[in-house]
């Protein structure tokens, strides 16, 4: 009996002082990707080259393509880098972090594309060419026929160029690579109601972004309930003093995301959090995102109306023979895509996202910005004309078609589509966004 107690004592000493046994976690990249924890797209799809051409109903032909992609993987933004600098200070004396506690992301690079992010949109372009092989067959670049646009920032412009390189790969006139020079336009940010509709909307800035009590209540409740617990666990385990600020916990996950995007490493910051803590950290971002860019605020369900309006105008222009444009290719923010989803009423969870969800409910959430909208995600609106005079539209996100609520199937009658979004087409954006 005494020997047994002695053995237990020795074993418990061994467990609590063996850092590799219980203090950090060793995740493979496959594991992290499979848990949908961040914006980085799994390499299997991001760099896929075995793309099958789409099939569609007989007697129909794809006539017009509207493509809206998110920019490629980027460097962190200003707030993220500042948080990483705070994490650097907090973890400076933590032994398990000694090889990677320093922030490697310089402020001068904020929001620019990382190398992976320059390559991803190129693959999106290659994949577009293969997926819509019949559509592109024989089409020569002409700025009146193929229109390129992006949000006015460097990461969007560069992503759009990379996409066009992939799309026209080897088909242009320039040098040995046969690149195709293209024209693209970028409206001034604060007037860009089609892509930058949130900050272009004063009411959104004042009520959804700045003074959003619904969001703040949920985010603070979650912080006091969940982030405080994780921060305490980390401070105790790693003897951090003064203790880790709970508000920095979600940035441990974000730091891990950028180490993966920029350095292809999954061993650094992610190794601090347990599988459950990784998901709980993501849910903090899910909550914020939901109240800022998804169904958590009713304004978001109308804010995408300018994009839909121009979509309808371009389709009608083509159908009535007044326009020769067949492809409209854009590069935008992840926020733009979520506003378009909220405006279309798609990807809505069965329950609202709140601070008091159980862990099981959090595990079962299907649609969140972080789960859904990878860097370099692609959204396509495909327009078909059929021999029985029908016009159909199909919407495809990251290669998966989805049914727009109100439509009978993924192929939706054009007239039905217009009817569903009646009030959101030709909306009065200025009036909607006037404040107060
Ligand atoms: C992590 O796991 C991999 C494979 O399972 C192994 O090769 C590696 O040595 C482990 N790293 C650490 C720090 O335990
Ligand atoms: C880390 O250790 C150094 C040297 O012992 C000490 O000066 C510093 O205050 C410590 N920093 C933290 C955050 O504990
Ligand atoms: C949003 O609101 C903030 C704070 O009131 C203000 O400083 C900023 O200029 C506003 N931005 C826009 C685009 O209206
Ligand atoms: C913030 O919103 C609340 C209502 O949601 C309102 O009472 C308050 O005046 C607003 N504050 C500012 C600074 O606009
Ligand atoms: C806890 O709640 C208070 C009051 O709502 C808030 O100011 C604080 O930021 C919250 N803490 C965290 C970590 O979210
Ligand atoms: C990234 O790391 C994974 C796993 O270690 C490896 O399989 C892959 O080839 C690496 N990718 C690049 C681009 O280096
Ligand atoms: C045709 O296009 C021109 C220029 O884009 C526009 O001014 C005109 O109103 C259009 N006509 C019809 C019938 O849509
Ligand atoms: C969870 O929070 C929401 C919003 O604050 C509230 O409406 C709901 O009743 C709460 N649910 C439970 C089970 O406490």
From TrEMBL:
Q: Where in the cell is it found?
A: Cell membrane
The alphabetized UniProt keywords are:
Cell membrane, Disulfide bond, Glycoprotein, Hydrolase, Membrane, Signal
Instruction: Provide the top EC class.
Output: hydrolase
Instruction: Supply one GO molecular-function term.
Output: inositol phosphate phosphatase activity
Which cysteine pairs are covalently linked by disulfides here? 60-386, 256-270, 407-412
Matching entries from CDD domains are given as: HP_HAP_like (cd07061)
By its UniProt entry, which Gene3D superfamilies does this protein fall under?
A: Phosphoglycerate mutase-like
Q: Where is the signal peptide?
A: 1-22
Native species of this protein? Funneliformis mosseae (Endomycorrhizal fungus)
Reactions listed under catalytic activity? 1D-myo-inositol 1,2,5,6-tetrakisphosphate + H2O = 1D-myo-inositol 1,2,6-trisphosphate + phosphate; (2R)-2,3-bisphosphoglycerate + H2O = (2R)-2-phosphoglycerate + phosphate; 1D-myo-inositol hexakisphosphate + H2O = 1D-myo-inositol 1,2,4,5,6-pentakisphosphate + phosphate; 1D-myo-inositol 1,2,4,5,6-pentakisphosphate + H2O = 1D-myo-inositol 1,2,5,6-tetrakisphosphate + phosphate
Name recorded for this polypeptide: Multiple inositol polyphosphate phosphatase 1
Q: Name one GO cellular component term.
A: plasma membrane
Concerning its family, UniProt says: Belongs to the histidine acid phosphatase family. MINPP1 subfamily.
Q: Which domain of life is it from?
A: Eukaryota
EC nos: 3.1.3.62, 3.1.3.80
Q: Kindly give the InterPro entries that the UniProt entry links to this protein.
A: Acid_Pase_AS, His_Pase_clade-2, His_PPase_superfam, Histidine_acid_Pase_euk
């Amino acid at each position: 009996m005494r020997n047994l107690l002695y053995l237990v004592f020795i074993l418990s000493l061994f467990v609590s002082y063996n850092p590799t046994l219980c203090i950090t976690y060793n995740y493979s990249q496959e594991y992290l990707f499979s848990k949908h924890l961040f914006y980085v797209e799994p390499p299997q799809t991001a760099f896929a080259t075995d793309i099958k051409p789409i099939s569609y109903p007989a007697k129909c032909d794809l006539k017009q393509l509207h493509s809206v992609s998110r920019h490629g993987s980027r460097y962190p933004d200003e707030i993220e880098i500042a948080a990483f600098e705070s994490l650097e200070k907090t973890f400076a004396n933590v032994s398990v972090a000694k090889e990677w506690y320093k922030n490697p992301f310089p402020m001068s690079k904020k929001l620019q594309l990382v190398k992976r992010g320059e390559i991803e949109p190129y693959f999106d372009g290659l994949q577009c060419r293969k997926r819509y092989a019949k559509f592109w067959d024989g089409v020569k670049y002409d700025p009146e026929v193929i229109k390129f646009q992006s949000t006015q920032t460097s990461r969007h412009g560069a992503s759009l160029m990379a996409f066009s390189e992939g799309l026209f790969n080897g088909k242009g006139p320039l040098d040995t690579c046969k690149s195709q020079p293209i024209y693209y336009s970028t409206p001034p940010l604060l007037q860009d109601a089609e892509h930058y509709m949130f900050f272009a909307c004063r009411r959104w800035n004042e009520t959804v972004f700045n003074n959003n009590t619904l969001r703040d209540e949920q985010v603070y409740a979650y912080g006091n309930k969940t982030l405080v617990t994780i921060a305490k666990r980390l401070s105790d385990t790693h003897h951090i003093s003064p203790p880790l600020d709970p508000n920095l916990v979600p940035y441990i996950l974000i730091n891990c995301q950028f180490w993966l995007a920029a350095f292809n490493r999954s061993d650094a910051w992610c190794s601090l959090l347990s599988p459950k803590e990784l998901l709980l950290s993501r849910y903090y971002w899910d909550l914020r995102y939901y109240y800022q860019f998804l169904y958590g605020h009713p304004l978001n369900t109308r804010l995408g109306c300018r994009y839909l309006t121009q979509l309808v105008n371009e389709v009608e222009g083509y159908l009535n023979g007044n326009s020769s444009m067949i492809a409209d290719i854009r590069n935008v923010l992840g926020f733009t895509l979520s506003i378009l989803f909220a405006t279309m009423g798609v990807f809505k969870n069965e329950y609202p996202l709140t601070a008091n969800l159980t862990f099981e409910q959090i595990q079962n959430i299907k649609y969140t910005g972080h789960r859904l909208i990878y860097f370099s995600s692609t959204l396509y609106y495909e327009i078909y004309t059929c021999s029985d005079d029908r016009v159909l539209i199909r919407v495809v996100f990251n290669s998966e078609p989805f049914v727009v609520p109100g439509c009978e199937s993924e192929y939706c009658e054009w007239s039905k589509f217009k009817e569903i979004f009646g009030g959101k087409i030709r909306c009065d954006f200025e009036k909607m966004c006037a404040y107060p």
